[in-house]
Design brief:
Length: 191
Amino acid sequence: MRILRAGDHKRMPWKNGKGETVEIAVFPADASIDDFDWRISMATVAEDGPFSIFPGIDRTLAILDGNGMVLEVEGSAPVLLTTASDPLAFPADVSVTARLQDGSITDLNVMTRRVGLAHRLIRIDVDGGKNVPLPPATCLFLCDQGALSFRKDGETGALAAGDALLIEDATATVLEIDGEARCYLASITTS
């Protein structure tokens, strides 16, 4: 287990040059935006426009902050995503256009290479104590808002807003959490 502090996340330009992304974690560790196996990042979207194309990649997106945006994914009806919406999964190698509802938003992106990997992203609201079952996978637990303490297999720690916990082999255990926070759990498995 490793804590990834918000202040240490890597900032880099979008692939299409129209914004900035905050990379929380990537594998392999030295991968670029063109050759990663998996990548978890946050981005601020400040204007309407197309998403970058990532050949052979599957993507899931959740809205962390702002009034939402409509995503038009090629071959599907437009979808309004807000902070209350479930994360939306879609292929990253088709045409996707974003239209902001009312001002900029911040989103969370989980991307995996389609051949060999799969992922899942869920939102977890914490108000007091909670046990979060971890799948036998690589897991990233992001504290989006609030703060919490955690325990797993005798190890303890704390996360503030923007911090993440990377668990490289969860082996179907449980993460014990205490606090008040809105969190996201990304799990990455081999397919």
